[in-house]
Amino acid sequence: MADADRVDDLQLGVDAVPVLIGPVSYLLLSKPAKGVQTSFSPLSLLGKILPIYKEVVSELKAGGASWIQFDEPTLVLDLDCHELQAFTEAYAELESCLSGVKVLVQTYFADVPTEAYKVLTSLKGVAGFGFDLVRGTKTLDLIMGGFPIGKYLFAGVVDGRNIWANDLAGSLVTLHALESIVGKDKLVVSTSCSLLHTPVDLVNETKLDKEIKSWLAFAAQKVNEVNALAKALAGQKDEAFFSANAAAQASRKSSRRVTNHSVQKAAAALGDSDHRRATTVSSRLDAQQKKLNLPVLPTTAISSFPQTPELRRVRHECKAKKISEEEYVKAIMEEISKVVELQEELDIDVLVHGEPERNDMVEYFGEQLSGFAFTINGWVQSDGSRCVKPPIIYGDVSRPKPMTVFWSTTAESMTARPMKGMLTGPVTILNWSFVRNDQARFETCYQIALAIKDEVEDLEKAGINVIQIDEAALREGLPLRKSEQSFYLDWAVYSLRITNCGVQDTTQIHTHMCYSHFSDIIPSIIDMDADVITSENTRSDGKILSVFCEGVQYVAGIGPGVYDIHSSRITSTAEIVDRITETLDVLEPERLWVNPDCGLKTREYTEVKPALKNMVATAMIVRTQLAFAKEAVCRKWD
Ligand SMILES: *[C@@H]1O[C@H](CO)[C@@H](O)[C@H](O)[C@H]1NC(C)=O
Ligand SMILES: *[C@@H]1O[C@H](CO)[C@@H](O)[C@H](O)[C@H]1NC(C)=O
Ligand SMILES: *[C@@H]1O[C@H](CO)[C@@H](O)[C@H](O)[C@H]1NC(C)=O
Known about the structure:
Elements: E1 2-3, H1 7-11, E2 19-21, H2 23-28, H3 46-62, E3 67-71, H4 81-94, E4 102-106, H5 114-121, E5 128-132, H6 137-145, E6 152-158, H7 168-182, E7 187-191, H8 210-214, H9 219-233, H10 239-254, H11 261-268, H12 281-292, H13 309-319, H14 325-346, H15 363-366, E8 370-373, E9 380-381, E10 387-388, E11 392-398, H16 405-412, E12 420-424, H17 426-431, H18 441-461, E13 466-470, H19 482-500, E14 508-513, H20 522-527, E15 532-535, H21 543-549, E16 557-560, H22 573-586, H23 605-637
Parallel strand pairs: 2-3, 3-4, 4-5, 5-6, 6-7, 12-13, 13-14, 14-15, 15-16
Antiparallel strand pairs: 1-7, 8-11, 9-10
Helix pairs in contact: 3-4, 4-5, 7-9, 11-18, 13-14, 18-19, 22-23
Bound molecules: 2-acetamido-2-deoxy-beta-D-glucopyranose (NAG) (3 copies).
The site of one 2-acetamido-2-deoxy-beta-D-glucopyranose (NAG) has 7 residues, from helix 11.
């Protein structure tokens, strides 16, 4: 962040702002530990944590901080008046210790609702308020409608969540308008949120196309943009910087790399019949069973098998051109053949090829689709210590040629059992990429869906009868505010349905979801109209099952994971039997699949083999039990 008139200080890095999670958001985002009464509200601890905040503030003041930032991102959520009241109380309580230092309360990731805006801008002891004006454009109207006199406005006009260069001319217009409301010396230019969400620097991206690169800004470039805007406000506009930026904006708008008219046309022409299979899931499952002839409680692995160091070495050497394409293909085929053999040995019913050719479930597809670019160093932190390198979607998406058909058919030819085709769904590809900001997210998603549809149909033509389309990120992409959720869920569900609405009844569509907070979106999950849904289950103590106790009508196939792949502990058959038996109390055996929670990519074979062995053994035990039970009933009627 750069205060308009203190740019020089900041460039020297002298006046750093310590950032703390604000007391109310800290509690609102906390979860009571397992076993604590559900009626317990973390917010009731406010009185206990405020003295600690006071201590920290005093120490920071003593250390010479001139500004302290409190992040209160929960102010963008749907809060009730009791929760909003907590902000008023907390800052009134802190007020006395906030004198002698300027305090900024920062929000981000969405609009601040009107009520919350009133509460926020009336907080005691606070010198400035920060807003995300990229994702929260409605907040701009609230500010224009009134802002407290004498307070600082931190205007987040540079996008901290995406990698596009700022439209500096447009931002300057916004900033001038804001200046007329809050006053010249009270306007601070900032990024919309922390720069944690963008890669560090474009400077070493030597492989990116030059034109595309000119459209981008990573964290280092964003800081320059903030500085340039602040300087321009202070009357020192860097004309060269602004005109280079304007040229890049213009080139992006008119570039032939961005627009593919035939893709635009196909997406615009999508109608109702393009996202609905014509038949009901029950009739399809019957048709599929005739073709696949599976036992009750069919077993399957989710997607990937362990990625051994040897595999990674082969992929790496292929990329570095140290081995030939033929050698690479041979090595991957050998791996697939091992994975197929292992699954046959374990007696799994529906096989996977193990995905040894894939580095990542999004990058692998992005690399083969038009409209995607890749960085060398564009890493961002995802959760905790994990990092990802998301692709950049810069243009209309199309699929020049089949992406997975070769590997899937190769694998299929190695076995008489059904082989699943394995695809990543459009919503997940979208959510795990940096997405264009020059068209609505749903439009980009429909384009990806149409590209995946081409792939689904090619797999079907090549004789693959079971196709899994993973939507690991469907729940993750849910907007923060309830008022926006149903629109999102509609287009997200349409997108998945677009991919497979053209297949025959006998082609079985699976989808997998690697999470379990299911119950709030269960109508949408049913609406996805997949033939079989597999999902994580064990880490949520079987919570998924609870939705089926609440009278939800569910007729499709379902495979709640029977063991936790994230744990290296081998789950015993007894435990799995219990889990399946419990599931059978709420679901029909004809609909139930037996599978692990997730893909096995990160595991070792020494764990995977015994775990899958137990899983298959369990399915056999329960099948026998079911058969006995049926026989007993039938004998009664004889
Ligand atoms: C860019 O590459 C140079 C030369 O390898 C290196 O010294 C520098 O640290 C790199 N910069 C970034 C931001 O990675
Ligand atoms: C445009 O999209 C179509 C598919 O709709 C594709 O066949 C064509 O190759 C694409 N053109 C470019 C330049 O990517
Ligand atoms: C997926 O989308 C949600 C909502 O926009 C976002 O919070 C999340 O960070 C995204 N995931 C990734 C990996 O970018």
